[in-house]
Amino acid sequence: MSEHRIPSLKLLMGFEAAARHGNFSRAADELHVTQSAISHQVQQLEEQIKQPLFRRAGRGVELTVAGEVLLRSVQRSLTVLRSGLGRIATYLDPGLVVLVCPAPLLHGWLQPRLHALQAQLPELCLLLSVDESARFVDELDVDIAISNRPLLQLGLQEIPLLQDEWVLVASTALAARLAGVPQAQHHEHADLICLEESLTGDATAPLFLGPLARFRKRAIYDDARLMLDATLDGTVIACLPRLLVDASIKRGQLEILSDYPRLPGTTWWLSGVTEMARSEIVVQVFKWLHAQGLEP
Fold first, then answer.
1. Whether pTM exceeds 0.90
2. For residue 141, what are the CA distances in angstroms to 5, 104, 288?
3. In terms of C-beta density within 10 A (0-12 exposed, 13-18 middle, 19 or more buried), how is residue 291 classed?
4. Which of 2, 55, 218, 233 is the most exposed place for a label (fewest CB within 10 A)?
5. Residue 116 zone, left/alpha/beta (φ > 0; ψ -120 to 50; rest)
6. Which of 293, 206, 197 shows the shortest CA–CA distance to 240?
7. Cα(54)–Cα(105) distance, rounded to whole angstroms?
8. What angle in degrees, to the nearest 10, is found between the helix axes of 9-21 and 24-31?
9. Are 111 and 133 spatial neighbours (Cβ–Cβ below 8 Å)?
10. Distance between CA atoms of 41 and 43, rounded to whole angstroms?
């Protein structure tokens, strides 16, 4: 057999079933063919690879060394193939909606609201991606996108969804302790953790040069979600997007420190095809997201 010629899937599946059962008859029952069909498939496969794959063992068969090597390869390949077919089946789900949303916004604002969306649309299968490089909404890859600017793509409805802001937060316990201390002494009772981008951002840099200048910087992060986790530990204050900390505030885990300014943050935009959407459920999810953005 040429080194580039791969036996047909039909032959390989017949061989795999026979090897797994150790019996041609049971393999035939599984694949809904006759025993002679399995025997013929195995014979064809042996002729192609020029190696015996089975030897008789009582009423059944057992693998030769070549058969054992081939079986491991075939089973790995079939696993990959079945996995790929399973993923394709997911994309054929009539309730599928593909939504791209930046990770901090998904983590703090959208995720806690998804149970309400699922209750309203029980047939929904939401595929969530935080890949912000997905800048194109179309019928195949992305149905709806939330991003920090309009995508400016023809045929899209694009709506300002949410206005974020930068806020100073601390754990509820730490906020209570700081409430009894003059702001000028806060740095003596807590350290500061920072998001790298906020140290140089036009809106936030003056905060670190002013009211926060006396705080010891315990750590600088490039991932706001990790910074949120560190703030929840209870010994630091942090400047974070309000929409990221929204759920933690509602759960009573964090408080906004009222002694510090709240600064303008990102305007988040909602983009999607609503006139000729891939399915009606895409339109319903778009409208639900828009309504969530209108809530106070």
1. no
2. 34, 22, 20
3. exposed
4. 2
5. alpha
6. 197
7. 58
8. 130
9. no
10. 5
Contact 20, 30 (CB under 8 A): no
**CA 24 remoteness from chain centre:** 43
Burial of 278 (0-12, 13-18, 19+ CB in 10 A): middle
160: left (phi over 0), alpha (psi -120 to 50) or beta: beta
Write out the chain's pLDDT in tens, 296 residues: 445 678 898 999 999 999 999 999 999 999 999 999 999 999 999 999 999 999 988 888 999 999 999 999 999 998 887 776 666 555 566 888 989 999 999 999 999 999 999 999 999 999 898 887 765 666 457 889 999 999 888 888 999 999 999 999 999 999 999 999 999 999 999 999 999 999 999 999 999 999 999 999 999 999 999 999 999 988 999 999 999 999 999 999 999 999 999 999 999 999 998 777 788 999 999 999 999 998 87
Tokens 């408080």 belong to which residue? 255
On the CB side of 38, CA atoms within 13 Å amount to 24
**Structure tokens that stand for 142 in this block:** 């992305």
What is the C-alpha separation between 113 and 118, in angstroms, rounded?
Answer: 9
